[in-house]
Design goal:
8-stranded mixed sheet, elongated, single chain, two-stranded parallel ribbon, 389 residues
Length: 389
């Protein structure tokens, strides 16, 4: 058992439905003890409930902006606390109060040796301290201010998101995954649904789930080929889940999908991208040679999906074969198209990194939206020509 003396216990609360009261323990502890006890709960493909981001080397370095440099060469004080959550059963933290005043108490806190301390906020300060301790052994006794909680893993993740998203940026891909857990986790308090799981954030959470279906469950050209958060890049990856989630989120803005289940949308997208893979097989076989699975292709073709779905829904046939029929109009000559680059067939050569037109190297969401509009125009010309014939 670890006994920490003169700990201040503070009770805080909010009025959101299901929010409840939270005990916060404010204490100081030697850096060496914290380094020994603390762990970082990062997300990886095999630890999908993880929430922490990767460490940034520059924030740990001996430079003037690094924690080690700040400790060893500069002022070296951390007046704000490191936030940790001790995961153990409620009541296992033995708090023995000595004095009491309103919502604050002073006492001794006894923490079980079996409990693990997970760093919610302050991982760079902790890791920087470890680096600096190797050069200055005296830093082992450096008193670190710690705010400690005793919550479950969901509320631990929620604290990470609230602290970091409202004070400094959480990496986008990680934010999508945290929003996903907030939407689907049954222990989420009611206030989250009404205040956070609305609008764009709700769409992002659903989009992350759809990307999981395409990567893990459904028969799609992306199955096993989407790089997840915390997964090293590999040659078989076609894109990242951050990028793909961003563009699925745009699809969900279309009102036609507002009442559709996430798995149903995923199944439609699996059909859609399978149809594209039949038309552009080399783009999937050698993705580095083509721009179709780069940002411009993923963005513009994701935006095109509601158009293709609309044609197929009107036919009462949303199969990949019918989707491929409409996408096939992209391969035709359309001399009446308003844009020269879109009069030629939008074939694999058009998407080629070297042989394609300059527009495939353009950047910016405005351009990607314009490309989608011109692809849709090309299809509409083909549809009109076929019906007129």
């Amino acid at each position: 058992m670890l006994r920490i003396e003169n700990v201040r216990r503070i009770v805080q609360w909010g009025y959101g439905e299901g929010a409840g009261r939270v005990d916060l323990y404010i204490l100081t502890i030697p850096a060496a003890v914290l380094a020994q006890k603390a762990e970082i709960f990062r997300r990886t493909p095999t630890r999908r409930e993880g929430y922490q981001r990767e460490l940034q080397d520059k924030r740990l370095s001996r430079s003037k902006l690094g924690v080690a440099g700040y400790l060893l060469d500069q002022m070296g004080i951390f007046p704000t606390s490191i936030l940790v959550n001790v995961r153990c059963e409620q009541g296992q933290l033995d708090y023995q109060k000595k004095s009491e005043r309103s919502e604050q108490e002073i006492g001794d806190l006894i923490v079980p040796d079996s409990a693990t301390w997970f760093v919610v906020d302050g991982q760079h300060r902790l890791e920087g301290l470890k680096i600096a301790m190797r050069e200055e052994e005296e830093l082992a006794t450096y008193p670190v201010i710690v705010t400690m909680t005793n919550e479950d893993i969901f509320h631990e993740m929620l604290m990470f998101f609230l602290v970091n998203s409202r004070a400094k940026s959480v990496p986008t891909g990680l934010a999508y995954r945290i929003l996903q857990r907030m939407l689907y986790d049954k222990v989420a308090p009611k206030w989250i649904e009404g205040t956070m799981m609305v609008g764009a954030d709700r769409r992002k959470a659903i989009a992350a789930t759809i990307v999981d279906y395409l990567n893990l469950d459904l028969d799609s050209p992306f199955k096993g080929r989407i790089q997840e958060v915390g997964e090293p890049n590999a040659s078989e990856h076609l894109t990242t889940d951050e990028t793909f989630t961003r563009y699925v989120t745009i699809i969900l803005k279309d009102s036609i999908f507002s009442e559709t289940y996430d798995k149903d949308i995923a199944e439609l997208l699996a059909e859609y991208w399978t149809a594209l893979a039949t038309i552009y097989p080399r783009c999937f076989q050698k993705p580095r040679d083509y721009m179709m699975l780069g940002t411009i292709g993923l963005s513009s073709l994701s935006r095109l999906f509601p158009t293709i779905y609309g044609y197929c829904a009107r036919d009462k046939d949303v199969s990949k074969e019918n989707m491929a029929k409409y996408l096939g109009y992209l391969l035709e000559q359309t001399p009446d198209h308003r844009d020269l680059d879109f009069r030629r067939p939008i074939d694999e050569k058009w998407w080629h990194r070297v042989d394609g037109p300059g527009i495939v190297h353009g950047t910016g969401e405005g351009l990607y939206s314009e490309v989608c509009s011109k692809l849709a125009e090309k299809i509409s010309i083909g549809v009109a020509k076929r019906r007129g014939g």
